[in-house]
Amino acid sequence: MIRRPAMLNERKEGRASFIVLCVLFALVVVILVLDLLRAHYLLIVEVKGDSMRDTLYGGELVGGDYEGGDVVYAVRGKDAERGEIVIIDTTDSAAYDPGGRAVFSASTIIKRIIATEGDCVRCVNGVVWLKKAGGEYEALDEPYAKGITPDFAEVRVGEGEIFFLGDNREHSADSQEVVAGGYDLLTVDDIVGVVPDWAVAIKGFSTGWENFRAAVYDFFVWD
């Protein structure tokens, strides 16, 4: 029986180790490049809570906070249109109170734009009706909506304002509660990102990738 020289085995093992290191290094480089691109164009948002189910999964409540929700990409600087999902900063609104004494206790929320400047919107018998500026009322087709939308009287959306709802209508703090509480509607300036349809379509990938990226980062970077 002919034995393989030990030197050849060592070379083979050395090449395998080198290849593994190269792959890991390339992976880290890719992650860093993507991080640079994201820093300028994208927000990485972990969905928390039930207000956007079943469109987006908000995780499970663990120790007072939601964990394990979808991670989605939001585009910075994009003008939001009716029907789009948006990321909203609530901190400039009187309807925000971190102690839970107002409509919003979270500083950042994710909702869907229903009406914009100049529109009128109302809900009758669970159906949302929208009258665009200069038009007539039309019932919205909302295949994304879950549950029954609570009825609300006509709301006129003023200059620069937005009216938004969560897709899970029975479990969402949104513009209908803002109006009912006597607060002013939030504005387009409060929108910090738009979640386009493609970002929703790849939510499974983005969730897995971002969790993997975080694990790799934690492996290579520590205090």
Characterise the protein shown here.
This protein has 223 residues and is an alpha+beta fold. It has one domain: Umud Fragment, subunit A. 29% of the residues lie in helices and 26% in strands. It contains four helices and twelve strands; from the N terminus they run αβββββββββββαβαα. The protein has helices spanning 6-41, 175-180, 197-201, 203-220, and strands at 42-46, 60-62, 65-67, 71-75, 85-89, 108-116, 120-124, 127-131, 137-139, 152-156, 162-165, 191-195. The strands form four sheets. Strands 11-6-5-12 form a four-stranded antiparallel β-sheet. The longest helix is centred in the first third of the chain and has 36 residues, at 6-41. It is elongated and about 75 Å long. It starts with 5 loop residues before the first helix and ends with a helix. The mean pLDDT is 90.
Summarize the structure.
By secondary structure, this protein is an alpha+beta fold. 29% of the residues lie in helices and 26% in strands.
Question: In whole angstroms, how far apart are the ends?
Answer: 53 Å
Radius of gyration, rounded?
A: 24 Å
Q: How many structural domains are formed by the residues? A: 1
The major beta sheet can be summarized as:
4 strands, antiparallel
Outline the low-pLDDT stretches. Answer: none
- SS summary, helix count: 4
- What's the level 1 CATH class? Mainly Beta
Structural class by sheet pairing and helices: alpha+beta
Task: Determine the fraction of residues in helical runs and give it as a percent range.
Answer: 25-40%
Mean pLDDT reading: 90
Q: Percent of residues in beta strands?
A: 25-35%
How many strands appear in the DSSP assignment?
A: 12
- The SSE string, one letter per element, is HEEEEEEEEEEEHEHH
CATH-derived topology: Umud Fragment, subunit A
